What we know:
Number of helices: 11
Radius of gyration: 21 Å
Structural class: alpha/beta
Strand content: 15-25%
Amino acid sequence: MNTLERDLLAIPQDFTGGRIDIASGVARMSATLWATRWRDTSARQDTAVVIVHPTSNFMGHYALELLAARGVAAIGMATRYAGNDSTLITENCLLDIAAVIGYLKRELGYAKVLLIGNSGGGSLAALYQSQAENPTITSTPAGDPPDLTKADLPPADGLCLAMAHPGRARVYTDSLDPSIRDESNALSRCPELDMFRAENGPPYSEDFVTRYRAAQEARNRRITAWVRQQLAVLATEPDGPDDLPFVVHGTAADPRFLDLSLDPSDRVPNTILGDPWKTNFLPARLGHYSSLRSWLSQWSIDDSRSDAVAELAHVSVPVQIIYGTADNAVFPSHAQAMYRAIGHERRELITLKGADHYFRTRPDLRDEMCDHITRWAVSL
């Protein structure tokens, strides 16, 4: 009989060096990452799974207890940026994952550790494993530390990308509202590029989608050019600030949210936060607030390294990809592109028929997902 226990892991990590990108002085001084572990204390467990996301606090993740009941130790971690992506530096998130994997293997003695990237954690997990196997990153896109070629990055023994998209910069750009003409005024809109105007759709014509996608990337690149210009100006004042915050309006405008013929699936026309028009301006939506340096690391389509399609080609360990057909945040093309990118045959693509992003309509499919993950983990 399973005897499940939950405990809190305090994992040493140094946040005090370099730029201040965590507001809490208590968090910086603690030199500690926090994670929750669920395990069956009635039997020895040599395999651990770590569920990760760049900003979501996964210490209370819905899959932890389910996975532990199936025979693996399940760890839900939070990076230093839990709950706040406005100053997030992707490269620092890799250091946080490294600290957790190293602690599990060296301090707690787990023989195998599987890294599960859930939702936005998928690309982060792929980037981590790619750099752990062959580190190439010597600085952030802004030219700052860390140098990952000099970091201790213990590789995971396998990856699972569950309900995961290929990268924050990619899905952010696909949702960036190209009709906004004035970055300081969210309601200054170009009608010819406004997906919310009835005359444009849905359904959206092929010509509209082509122009729309090109305009989205152009807007992302305009913001990136402005960011680099601002950083260049700041660099001329050595005693002044080295980073600044700014606001980006309109970040939930992917035509797939309303037109189900684009990337067809079983999803409903909506976003995971509700009505797309309202979500487009919702302060809690992805990427409305950013620092200059964080933009380059996290949201710039040309600069962010967190791209699972690019990184999975450099990963040698087994990779499992799981997606739901009713997910309105992650689309079938995302899972298929990541699966095709894997450069070896130790790979698996699992389709959960009827599963939405959080399993709200089909909670039974959470169990099915955890069955697949456990089978994959113990087979490594």
